[in-house]
Amino acid sequence: MNLRKLIFGLLLLSIGLNGISLILVATVGRPPAVMTPLTTLVVFLFAVLHAGASYGWRRGLTMLVIVVATGLAFESVGVATGFVYGPYHYTDLLGPKFLGLVPFLIPVAWFMMIYPSFRIADQLVARIFPHGLWRGVLTAALAAVAMTAWDLAMDPMMVMAGHWVWEQPGAYFGVPIQNFWGWWLTTFTALALYQLVLRWLPGKDEPTMPVAWTATSYAVMGLTTVATDFMAGLSGPGLVGIFAMLPWVVIGWINDRSKLN
Length: 261
What we know:
Blueprint: H1 3-28, H2 35-55, H3 57-81, E1 88-90, E2 97-98, E3 102-103, H4 105-125, H5 133-160, E4 164-166, H6 178-197, H7 211-231, H8 235-255
Antiparallel strand pairs: 1-4, 2-3
Helix pairs in contact: 1-2, 1-7, 2-3, 2-4, 3-4, 3-6, 4-5, 4-7, 4-8, 5-6, 5-7, 5-8, 7-8
């Protein structure tokens, strides 16, 4: 099996796993605990392989390391101090924790969604700024918006499911508004750092793998989150998620229409 077929196979597998999760939520109320880490790891692996095949392995793995390290650092400071996102803590539902603070699955999830957000934003910005500083800055800024759009639908649902707890519930369906600034800042910082080191890394300046595949991955995760919101009685975050995420999905698909073969 060549790499392209493996990546596409992982995308199909992620669609299947998300579909199973939704069926279980609709029928029994909650999927088995293993479904969340299993789905996350499959989508994560898709993103890692897609990044390596798109940009070259040195650049792809560098992005992985920077995003994981940045996400883990921000989250650890956030849990320990409440400074970044607001005061919160993780329960034990997401598995073992780094320094007893942040589940190891969390930085994996950061890359799982930051990468497709980055690809969608970069393809859009490249139409205006093909090269140079502004391309990197705007890509990081817009990718951070796309990434945060997912959390608008996801955070209230994960709190309801007991994965983490806000010490001081906020104005957005129990989530502090500060949290979304923290999401934007975390994503922007990670991608800005990645853009800074690009000049020293050999690789492909223009990615070769379809952006539509990453837009589909982004869409599937968003659809699962939104649908779960509605089934859990969280129609507010579900509606917000639709309007916040759908434009990025459409942008990703439209910009890659000529590369679907």
